[in-house]
Amino acid sequence: MLRSLYIWPDRPLLSLLVLLVLAMPFLYLAREPMHTLLRRASRAIVRPLRLGARWLTDAAARMRTRNREVLLAHGSRELRLSIDRELERVTILVQRDLEGYPALQRRLMDEITRIEEDYKRSGEVPPPSPEWVKAIEALAKIRATGDGVVERILADIRDSLDDIYQKVVAEYRAAYQQRHKILSTCVPFWRSASQTLVQVERNITSLNDSAAKIDANVEKLESIFARRTEVENALTSSASTQFFISSLVMLIAFGGAYVNFKLISLPMSAMVGGGDYITDTLRASEIAALVIILFETLMGLFLMETLRFTNLFPLGNITEKMRRRLMWVSLAILLVLAGVEVALAVMRDSIIAADVALKQSLGSAAAVQTEASWVTRIPTFGQMILGFTLPFALAFVAIPLEYFVGSGRIVVGAGFTLLIRGAAFSLRVGASLAGEAGKLAVNFYDVLIFAPLAIERWIRKVPETASHKEKLQSAPAFPQPATSGEEVL
Amino acid sequence: MKLTTATLALGVLAVCAGCGPAVNHNQAVYVLVDTSGTYTKEVNKAQGVVNYLLGSLEPGDSLAVATIKSRSFSEKDIVAKVSLTKDPIQANSQKKAFSEKMAQFAHSTQNTKGTAYTDITGGLVQAAEFLNETGAGRKTVIIFSDMQEELDYKTVRNFPIKLDGIRIIALNVSKLSTDNVDPRRYMGRLEWWEKRARAAGATEWRVVNDMEHLERVFSRRG
């Protein structure tokens, strides 16, 4: 195209230079309209880009506000659920333990009274008779005169006293033994009282812990209602962590589902037909296996929902009785499906065994090798156990799924906001580049017509120089003072 | 609402995993075994190929084995045929029965003298008729022969045949003693058959003499 314009095809540079020189006067004449055209073209690109950038920034701000609302709503919902759970625990604790507190107190009081009575009884010692003590004192004052009668009387008295002393001591010891017995009967009561008090203390401590948790959650809830930034940051971070963990758990669950799928897809071909294809690559048996797995997952979701582990469905408006019924129905269906899987595992094994036997009899060893996949290496019993347990394991997917959905909305929203902001920034950069490119194009145009511009500047400069010279000539070399020089001198 | 969306997404994912138009994946294979002249000695190899096919066919597929004789356009030449049921266990029993029939045929053929003439065209027309009746998505004719057609003067086979949508595989095309003298005869013969097959509308023409790697020829997507 350009080659056709060359004056001397073998000298393109020279041709271009000559063409430029020839075009220069025309380009110079078209300078003003060309400048306007370039500026307007640049503006035509810059303005929509800026407009787009502004719209995207506004959209990002709106989305951020919306995300914030969702985040705070999600956080407050989680906290409310947590508070509800704690309050439920407290209610159960109060109903179970504190309801029996009057009876417990009565029992405690009875035990304390009995201990007190026993204690008093153990402290009672029979006091010696005061007359008997006085008689002894009187006898002790009698002096030994050496009179035989007196001596004999005193010896009789001493013997009698010894007997009495022995008797009294024996009685005293018996009384102490009795008191010890009473005290030993007190020990179980003391233990019981102590245990009761420990239990009371434990309950109170648990109650205190729950109350502390409730307080902390209420405080967080207040912060959410007050829309504090630190709470928002904490909730975002928590949502990201939840999203990551739930994704990981879901990935593991998908692995389990895949194993389950592999286990039942082959035997399903005996039920729905082996050679039927729904699409180009999906067999009918595979779809059937997938449907069974999805059903199991669904029943698991219902089970978890009715057990109040998750809150994915709006089941708040159904009665407790209905909830229980739903729970039993879900569990029953899950059990039936698990049973079906056990049967399928057995069938799978028999199909593979028959297939291998046939191929061996046909002598196509290569085909036998290709069919012997990793699943065939699991013994039948293991396959049966897997078939039975995997549906129940899949049921627990409901918990990470709830977190995945809840936190996914926040994380994806945040990511989307970031993306929009990035796009707005790119548009702004683009607008700036387009503006600068416009200016550059104007300057480049002037560079192309540098010669006429230089001539124009020179022509303009000539009269200016002339007028300047005229001004210089008309002006006196030295300013004339108002008074004459002679007078000065 | 959230759960419904999640379940829907899972369903869509599951369905879209194999998006594409519904295709008839059933196979129908017709094996023509040459029992003329000295080629009867090769029947044991044909039995091996049929056994391999039985191992690779899936429920819903069809298989037939017929002989190439002096005149082969006849149902009487079909040694055994089967349309496998959708139930894999039943299909296995069908395969077993078919294999036994094939073994009997191979045993009986070894003790008989080969036919004087070789009517490959008649066998092909009979095969096309059978394959079209099965309605399978993938139709294959396996010719187990030296591809040397010899007809008596009464038999008329020089008319255009129809093999639309059928792939032809010539297996174990043995060289004749005359081919050894002039190999161009062998190559010319194969070229003539290829031209004829393609003119008849065959989707593919293949000559396979390496019997060790049959999986390359009979792979499901091959």
Query: SSE string of chain A, helix = H, strand = E?
Result: HHHHHHHHHHHHH
Q: What is the CATH architecture descriptor of chain B?
A: 3-Layer(aba) Sandwich
The number of distinct helices of chain B, counting runs of at least 4 residues, comes to 7
Strand content of chain B: 15-25%
Number of strands of chain B: 6
Mean pLDDT of chain B: 82
Report the sheet-strand fraction of chain A: under 5%
User: What is the share of helical residues of chain B?
Assistant: 40-55%
Q: How many helix segments of chain A?
A: 13
Rounded radius of gyration of chain B (Å): 20 Å
Order of helices and strands of chain B: HEHEEHHEEHHEH
Alpha-beta classification of chain A:
mainly alpha
CATH topology of chain B: Rossmann fold
The beta-strand count of chain A equals: 0
Enumerate the spans of chain A where pLDDT stays under 50 for 5 or more consecutive residues: 482-489
Walk me through this protein's architecture:
The complex is a heterodimer of chains A (489) and B (222). Chain A has 13 helices and no strands. Chain A has 489 residues and is an all-alpha fold. Among the domains of chain A are: 129 residues; 168 residues, no CATH class. The radius of gyration of chain A is 53 Å and the shape is elongated. Chain A starts with 11 loop residues before the first helix and ends with a helix. Chain B is α/β, with parallel strands linked by helices and 222 residues long. Chain B has a single domain, classed as von Willebrand factor, type A domain (Rossmann fold). In chain B, helix 2 links the parallel strand 1 and strand 2. At the A-B interface, helix 6, helix 7, helix 8, helix 9 and helix 11 of A face helix 1, helix 2 and helix 3 of B.
Based on the model shown, name its key terms.
heterodimer; A: 489 residues; mainly alpha; 13 helices; B: 222 residues; alpha/beta; Rossmann fold; six-stranded mixed sheet; 7 helices
In short:
The complex is a heterodimer of chains A (489) and B (222). Chain A is mainly α. Helices cover 84% and strands 0% of the residues of chain A.
